[in-house]
Design brief:
By secondary structure, this protein is of the alpha+beta class. The chain is 41% helix and 34% strand. Helix 2 runs antiparallel to helix 4. The N and C termini lie close together (8 Å).
Length: 128
């Protein structure tokens, strides 16, 4: 099984600025959509005149293990949040820098992987 370090290296651009940041968010969104299709929603905007241009990730939302992870992109700024949910109601919301967001999400995925074969497969696809 791939290590956390493998995933950290692929997400390292989230801690950078500029073009690398945009590319890293796009790659991360694609990996999450592929690995956790039932728990991931990616909102894209853009497309230029008449929607013919490239759409870019505006927000990534992942619901996992009673937490909702949200990563929002505005220009060259990325903000991460984790909400603890009980019965669909948010009881705690905390801001996380993008690196901490990725680490917390990976940690929850590892915990879920210990409980579920489906989650284990998703984690392997994400980290691989």
């Amino acid at each position: 099984m791939p290590t956390d370090q493998d995933f950290d290296l692929s997400a390292a651009g989230l801690r950078a600025d500029g073009t690398d940041l945009r590319i890293s968010v796009e790659v991360l969104a694609s990996k999450l959509e592929e690995s956790l299709p039932g728990q991931t929603r990616v909102e894209r905007h853009g497309g230029g005149l008449l929607g013919r241009g490239e759409k870019r990730v505006r927000q990534i939302r992942v619901e996992l293990a009673g937490n909702c992870y949200q990563l929002t992109v505005a220009g060259n700024r990325v903000e991460g949040f984790r909400e603890r949910q009980v019965g669909g109601i948010s009881i705690k919301r905390e801001q996380l820098d993008p690196g901490a967001w990725v680490s917390a999400l990976t940690s929850d995925m590892r915990t879920e992987a210990e409980r579920s074969g489906e989650a284990r497969t998703a984690l392997e696809r994400l980290l691989g």
